[in-house]
Amino acid sequence: MKSKLAFFACILGMQLSFTTLHSQTIQDNGDFLLIADAPGEGFENAYHLLADRSRIIDMLNDLNSFLALPYNINIHFQDNEGPYYYQGNIMMNYGFLNHVYSVFNEAGYIETQEDLDMILDVVEFVLYHEIGHALVEAYAIPITGKEEDAVDGLASVLISEVLEDPEMALVVADLFALQDEQVEEFEEAHFWDEHSLDAQRYYNILCWFYGSNPEQYQSVIEEEGLAQQRAVRCPGEYQQLFNSWGRLLAPYIKE
Ligand SMILES: [Zn+2]
């Protein structure tokens, strides 16, 4: 992992410059805890994919070494419920891994065992998203606008800054594009839902990925159909996300 360094070290820098504003010091009274239930029938492959590749454990170890939490936050993998966050518990489900597998498999993405890593790319993104909700509650972080979009932004920043392979953001964007293609007709539920539409989440994630390093990811604009009118704003949008989440998390970074 190029890990931690960029984002968390940068936050640590922010923390120093904000210590005069934030005189409170946070006690580290908790961790992200992984609870993985034995899988029921039909969920064994998903369970083994998670268990055999230690990515989730590595991810949580990193977060625990950097973030001071006021209480434990449980990440509960089980068959069907989730993904969502509720009162100190993140519910993640093997059924969601099955869903991602079937979407990618139908699209012809899964040909080798290595391709299964794409499923874990999505799981990591979704877990960062749910962790975002958990942090908003744990730290009483002020959010204006849609919290769902805000925590997609946090997940995008963490993927870009913390992970060895930020291109996994493209895999996540792809899932939203493929799910959008499955929609035959928009219903009211698409509009009252607290999440942005899958097509919007696709373009947001794409935009922030491109914005995180415009020189390196220039080709993404043409290949993925991100319009110039949006693309020109993406580096600024990404920088704003980076700075905002950095400031909001700064008081809780362990030195
Ligand atoms: Zn959410």
Properties at a glance:
binds zinc ion; 255 residues
Q: What can you tell me about this protein's structure?
A:
There is one protein chain. The radius of gyration is 18 Å and the shape is globular. The mean pLDDT is 91. It has helices at 5-18, 44-52, 55-66, 94-106, 117-138, 147-162, 168-181, 188-192, 198-212, 218-224, 228-231, 234-249, and strands spanning 32-36, 73-78, 84-86, 89-93. The chain has one domain (5-252). A four-stranded mixed β-sheet has the order 1-2-4-3. With 255 residues, the chain is α/β, with parallel strands linked by helices. The site of zinc ion has 4 residues, from α5 and α6.
Topology:
Layout lengths: L4 H14 L13 E5 L7 H9 L2 H12 L6 E6 L5 E3 L2 E5 H13 L10 H22 L8 H16 L5 H14 L6 H5 L5 H15 L5 H7 L3 H4 L2 H16 L6
Helix pairs in contact: 1-6, 1-12, 2-4, 4-5, 5-6, 5-7, 6-9, 6-12, 7-9, 9-12
The structure holds zinc ion.
Zinc ion binds next to α5 and α6.
- Strand share of the residues? 5-15%
Low-confidence stretches: none
Question: Can you count the beta strands?
Answer: 4
Please state how the strands of the largest beta sheet are arranged side by side: 1-2-4-3
What about the largest sheet? 4 strands, mixed
Summed up, the helix count is: 12
Mean pLDDT: 91
Give the distinct bound molecules: zinc ion
Q: Taking Cα atoms only, what radius of gyration do you get, to the nearest Å? A: 18 Å
Order of helices and strands: HEHHEEEHHHHHHHHH
Large-scale geometry: globular
